[in-house]
Inverse folding.
């Protein structure tokens, strides 16, 4: 709740958080809009939304139900990626953002590989997305992002907390980052599996327009970042028979979740 209030009061933004809506107006200067979308290539999707995928080992996974916690999204300054001189403080808002980082120390998650000060482009209210009958999600429009040159976007999958939006009631989902329930089939035999994990994992993503990775300054022109998740890629190289239990399977699966990502600007 505290993070939601900081988001609303300090940025006067995060407008439309979690809202699925068609064709919103382009972001204005100083705004960053985050959209979460899906790449269904390689999936066999049934009329009821359930889906199957055959991985590169010839193992078929059939998913009956599942959810993913998209914990946060932000842009990453070029100076942080390239190791150049750190930019000076922007304003008093920098100090206020440090209060938000203090909040994460007591209830949130660390953003490994990032500065210990939250960037003004950060949106950090977890949203739980259904993996059956998926749809794009306009996560948020963050306003008031000051002048900065950004080279990447950071997307984090992490366990749902008390601020999480959309957590399912039909399964235990407290502090869960990924839940998958279904079957896998190999050598003519079908076996059930269940992954329910609280592991956290994120990744820096280049900002693409077509095949070109770009640098952007949202203060000059509004930015819309679309993060595509390719679910078929989650299962590449996975053979459940090779893991002692579903906990070990989850540890192998989570890095695949963020490996199969792409961020596009539009």
């Amino acid at each position: 709740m505290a993070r939601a209030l900081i988001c609303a009061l300090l940025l006067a933004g995060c407008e439309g958080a979690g809202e699925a809506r068609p064709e919103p107006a382009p972001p204005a200067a100083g705004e960053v809009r985050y959209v979460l979308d899906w790449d269904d290539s390689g999936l066999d999707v049934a009329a009821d939304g359930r889906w199957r995928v055959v991985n590169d080992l010839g193992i078929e996974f059939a998913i009956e139900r599942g959810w993913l916690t998209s914990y946060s999204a932000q842009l990453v300054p070029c100076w942080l990626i390239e190791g150049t001189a750190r930019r000076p403080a922007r304003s008093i808002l920098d100090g206020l953002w440090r209060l938000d980082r203090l909040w994460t120390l007591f209830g949130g998650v660390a953003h490994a590989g990032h500065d210990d000060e939250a960037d003004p482009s950060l949106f950090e209210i977890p949203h739980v997305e259904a993996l059956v009958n998926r749809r794009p999600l306009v996560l948020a429009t963050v306003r008031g992002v000051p002048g900065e040159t950004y080279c990447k976007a950071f997307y984090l999958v992490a366990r749902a907390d008390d601020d999480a939006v959309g957590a399912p009631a039909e399964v235990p989902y407290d502090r869960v980052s990924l839940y998958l329930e279904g079957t896998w089939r190999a050598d003519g035999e079908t076996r059930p599996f269940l992954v329910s994990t609280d592991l956290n994992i994120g990744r820096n993503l280049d900002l693409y327009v077509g095949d070109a990775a770009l640098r952007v300054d949202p203060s000059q022109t509004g930015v819309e970042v679309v993060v595509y998740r390719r679910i078929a890629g989650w299962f590449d190289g996975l053979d459940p028979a090779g893991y002692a239990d579903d906990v070990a399977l989850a540890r192998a699966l989570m890095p695949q979740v963020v490996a199969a990502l792409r961020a596009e600007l539009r």
